[in-house]
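Tutorial handout. Part one gives the primary structure; part two gives the three-dimensional structure as tokens.
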Amino acid sequence: MADQKKLKRRVRDRMARTGESCVVARRRVLFPADGAVTTGLHPDTSCVTVLLDGAQIHSECGLLSEAMVLGLGGGLGAGYILWDFKNDDRRAVATGFRKAWQYSDRWVAEVLGRLDVEFSSDQTGSERKAAATLARVPTRSFMTSSAPSCRLSQKHTRMK
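Part two.
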């Protein structure tokens, strides 16, 4: 709880100092201009908002919030997967709370597609191929939790 109070204080201080809206000030506090990502509310929405902000893709109101990105990806959802391991009598449950929660790569593709952002996604199980692919990735890139690398083209610099 103390961390939340500190964050709120930092955001309000920035709002007073710069005149920015709460959303913009919070984003700038969480994601400083030097590119260091300090935190986010949710791994996938955070990755997408950092990517879009880095590529300067904004709405007419400014930065896209994680909530807006969640909505673009289909919004909230819920699901679970139960794995039943018969050999050692174990069970494991995985839960998720957004649309397509078990397929991060598909979800990211849907969000970026709705924003008309060109991107590419590559996946491999080979460490050597992954290193070679990442060496070719431009600076504006990110990794989703299911590990495809996504790159933006310079075609889209503003979203209308």
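Part three, for discussion. Residues 40-74+100-151 form one domain. The longest strand covers residues 79-85.
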